[in-house]
Amino acid sequence: MSGLKIRGVSKSFGDQLVLDQVDLEIPNGSIVAALGPSGGGKTTLLRIIAGFLDADAGSISLGGTSLVTGGRGIPPQHRGIGYVPQEGALFPHLNVAANIAFGVRRRGFDVDEMLELVDLDPSLKRRFPHELSGGQQQRVALARALAPRPSMVLMDEPFSSLDAGLRVETGKAVIRALRAADATAILVTHDQDEALALADQVAVMRDGRVAQLASPEELYRAPVDAAVAGFVGSVVILPAAISGQVASTPLGDISIPAGTSSGTAQVLVRPEQLVLGTAGVRAIVEDVSFFGHDATVRLILVDSALTVEARVPGTDVPAVGDAVGISIRGTGSVLGAAPQ
């Protein structure tokens, strides 16, 4: 059975174009993170898929069933889609069991089974939302969304109100539950680490369009442009002269994938690819930001005055003013050069 297919979906609010001919396809059982800055159209797209908003144009189908045609769609309650909003939105006057069972009509429904699915102890079922932690509330909200056995689950920044440690723990628990239920899901987030760690694929949204859809590894290592590259992590972008599979840059020669036209271009590497030592291009340490497990080091290249940033282990951090050598490990990604 096919998954979610979105074709040419557009939406404006007055004169503001929020979604501009969005195309997106998600296979069954896949978890996709919609990543992007505020105002990029992520939540609007989610609400159109759910049926809370009408599109101005475009079509959406789920499992081969048409949800939206020409911008208009079937009512939300007939779409077979679960929705987890930002704050969970549990009913405060209902206990956990009643929240999860709300709207479920099938016989033999087991609340304990749903709680175990989201890594919560069944003993919590008699508690009320205000008696739960933020992470527990979000897991209950997911259990409620999964209870009717939906074809898809939509999550709108469900971890944004949690502190850093709880976000990681809750995110992993939610993804385990989605995989155990073999659910297809979209996770809206503006957190790059969350998107890369939790999703099978990441759709980077920018100016109302999907700028790139790729696996986390491909997105990080081969972004389509500098803007996408900068949104999914720190970058070092170098001017380069391309010849074959070699890019000549101020940091020396860097290996690049085959199939790029010769000429001038920009080459992208990540800060962790810069190795500091005694060999390589000469540089002076201008600034250090120490984070414990690692540190970022800003350096000025002696010969070109170019400023670059390296990420180094927290056990091997140079001091401001130190003279070091920089070499590159791994390959670079070429920006601004069309494939042959």
From TrEMBL:
SMART domains: AAA. The keyword Cell membrane applies. Residues 4-232 form the ABC transporter domain. InterPro entries: AAA+_ATPase, ABC_SmlMolc_Importer, ABC_transporter-like_ATP-bd, ABC_transporter-like_CS, ABC_transpr_FbpC, Mo/tungstate-bd_C_term_dom, P-loop_NTPase, Transp-assoc_OB_typ2. GO terms for molecular function: ATP binding. It holds the Pfam family ABC_tran. The keyword Metal-binding does not apply. Keywords: ATP-binding, Cell inner membrane, Cell membrane, Ion transport, Iron, Iron transport, Membrane, Nucleotide-binding, Translocase, Transport. It comes from the Bacteria. This is Iron(III) transport system ATP-binding protein.
